[in-house]
Design a protein that fits this description.
Radius of gyration: 20 Å
Structural class: mainly alpha
CATH superfamily: MFS general substrate transporter like domains
CATH class: Mainly Alpha
Strand content: under 5%
Number of strands: 0
Distance between the termini: 25 Å
CATH architecture: Up-down Bundle
Helix content: over 70%
CATH topology: Growth Hormone, Chain: A
Shape: globular
């Protein structure tokens, strides 16, 4: 039920994002404004580190329910408000910031929630199922956008997203326990000093670990280079491919479809190729974005995104297992929140850079640089990871399933 609820909620999220970006592009004709909206959407990740101690201190299931209720109320309020105002662009900026702030706590809690409810031997299957259901939701959300965006308009997609948060809350209520064992009892007064102490423990854990010391900066750079492919895709579809909302949605759909295929096949491929070989291969294949601008056709663009989506989804599933093995259960909330801050901060930076540079150099030039940068980062990660899994300190984290 957990996977079903999150999948339905993610359908709403994808439909909302698709409608939001396309609406701003068509309303203003300014790709820079689309990029700035994406920067506002992901900027709250920079301060995600602040919520990590709460994700480890309190019951994660209750935190997930509370954040989904909040997000549903926020989106629902804006959906209703938008029907009485013709200009909702400023409203969209406000709502994406609020959603980003609440999502910080949700993501920090959910990464530790999975090992709480799934046996260690099933972590790869569970993470793959989460990835597959999430990306399948993106496929369905993209398809929904392609069919209904022009007919219903973005305001209806806001309301739909709000309703899917309610479905997620209901499914979370069906899960009896949020931890394999009882969570630590919160102190009577969880003050700033204790919060700061627990945050410092998480920062020390991550900063002294040789694996995360190179992974987190690499993921930060990857996000800087990757985000132009998300925020400038409507502009690429409209100006370079000369396609409609259906063509843009088709690229998003193939990107997500590749991720579904990758996440679904990850456990079987791990058995056949081996955990380490599959991880290295998935890193290398993500360099395919270098080829994105070689041809300005819808078929080529969609094919490149499909391959990247599959490789990225496989690496995410495998790396989730590595991190869940490497750190203790009571530290996963802080580890995740630090990852969101360090790595996720690359997203608003990349979006802001794209928005600032696109008026001067154009969409194609930015995508060329982004593709080359992504290829270099993932090639480096492949080399560095291959060294780590031969180390006695980390060999258990990369052990075969």
């Amino acid at each position: 039920m957990f996977f079903v609820g999150q999948g339905i909620s993610n359908i709403g999220n994808q439909a909302f994002s698709l409608a939001m970006y396309w609406f701003v592009q068509m309303s203003t004709g300014e790709p820079a404004l689309v990029a700035w909206l994406a920067a506002a959407q992901f900027a709250p990740q920079i301060i995600a580190v602040l919520v990590g101690p709460y994700a480890d201190r309190y019951d994660r299931r209750r935190l997930l329910i509370a954040t989904d209720i909040f997000r549903g109320v926020v989106v629902g309020y804006v959906a209703v408000l938008s029907y009485f105002h013709t200009n909702i662009i400023v409203t969209l900026f406000v709502v994406v910031v609020l959603l980003g702030l609440s999502t910080n706590l949700f993501e920090s809690a959910v990464f530790g929630f999975v090992p709480d409810i799934v046996p260690s031997a099933s972590l790869l299957s569970a993470n793959s199922l989460i990835g597959a259901s999430t990306k399948l939701a993106v496929v369905l959300g993209s398809a929904l956008g392609a069919v209904l965006l022009a007919q219903l308009g973005p305001r209806s997609f806001l309301l739909f997203d709000a309703l899917t948060f309610g479905v997620s809350v209901l499914t979370l209520y069906t899960i009896r326990s949020g931890r394999g064992g009882a969570p630590p009892d919160p102190p009577t007064t969880y003050g700033a000093r204790r919060w700061l102490h627990e945050l410092g423990m998480g920062l020390r854990e991550v900063s002294t670990n040789r694996l995360t010391r190179y992974l987190y900066p690499a993921f930060f750079l990857s996000n800087v280079f990757l985000v132009p492919f998300s925020v400038l895709l409507p502009s690429w579809a409209h100006a370079d491919l000369h396609t409609t909302a259906a063509g843009y949605s088709a690229m998003e759909l193939l990107w997500a479809a590749g991720a579904v295929v990758g996440a679904t096949l990850a456990p079987k491929l791990s058995e056949r190729l081996g955990f380490r070989a599959l991880l290295a291969s998935s890193f290398v294949l993500q360099a395919v974005l270098v080829l994105f601008t070689v041809e300005s056709t819808l078929l080529w663009s969609a094919a490149v995104l499909f391959v990247f989506g599959a490789a990225n989804s496989v690496s995410n599933a495998l790396l989730s297992v590595v991190m869940q093995r490497l750190f203790s259960a009571d530290m996963l909330g802080r580890v995740t929140s630090i990852a969101l801050s360090v790595n996720g901060s690359g997203t608003p930076i990349g979006a802001a850079l794209a928005g600032a540079l696109v008026p001067f150099v154009g969409v194609t030039a930015i995508l060329i640089v982004a593709g080359v940068g992504t290829g270099l980062v993932w090639s480096y990660v492949a080399i560095a990871a291959s060294r780590s899994w031969h180390s006695d300190d980390f060999s258990f984290a990369f052990a075969e399933q």
